[in-house]
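Our preliminary data section would be incomplete without showing what the modeling component actually yields. Below, a chain of 207 amino acids is followed by its predicted structure, encoded as tokens that our downstream tools consume directly.
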Amino acid sequence: MALTSEELLHRLIEDLVSVRTRVKTLEEADASTRLDTLTTRIGTLTEQIAHLQPPEDNDSPTPGEVPDWTTMTQDQTRAAWTWLIDWCATVLHPMYATDIWRPCWYEHPRLRMELTWLAAHWDWSRTRKAPPTRTAEWHARWWPHVEQVMRRELAKCGHPTEILREPLHPVAPEANPTEFVDSTASLQEYVNLHVKRRPVKEDEAER
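Predicted structure:
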């Protein structure tokens, strides 16, 4: 029995819908396959790049990380002292704090703690791509704070005077009261004693 024109048109429409559905399914499957392939290639390249990069030293502090003097081992304590002394000698003392410095600065634990985070912030403000606001904040906010702490901590140290008859840490009359340290030997002896009080291993430091 021959189909009428209306029936033929209806069947053609059904066939067209079916074909479109199948084409769409095939296109989606093809796109999914391409996406999976691309994802696999990206993953492979990522692994290859990771292998080419040098391994990270998990023990080395990142810029801006503040050493914790209360939990460090002997080796970590000595490294922290070396870093802090170098920064104070090359940056803070000659560039910012000469007028208020005292050679006994390292014998003031509170001041040492303040200088530690101040130095860490200095390093952090000079990392690659660091915004200038970090340096601005160091100068406008953090250094003025530590400067006041330093003035208070060192107020009773220096040359004996009529007002300061018995300095906490006296400086000899012929010596410069704003020298970086009274003597390298004294500084090294203090650091060595501090290091010896710290545990040798990390698990001992955490107890």
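The helical segments are 5-52, 74-97, 109-124, 132-153, 184-196, 202-205. Residues 5-52 form the longest helix (48 residues). Preliminary results of this kind motivate Aim 1 of the renewal.
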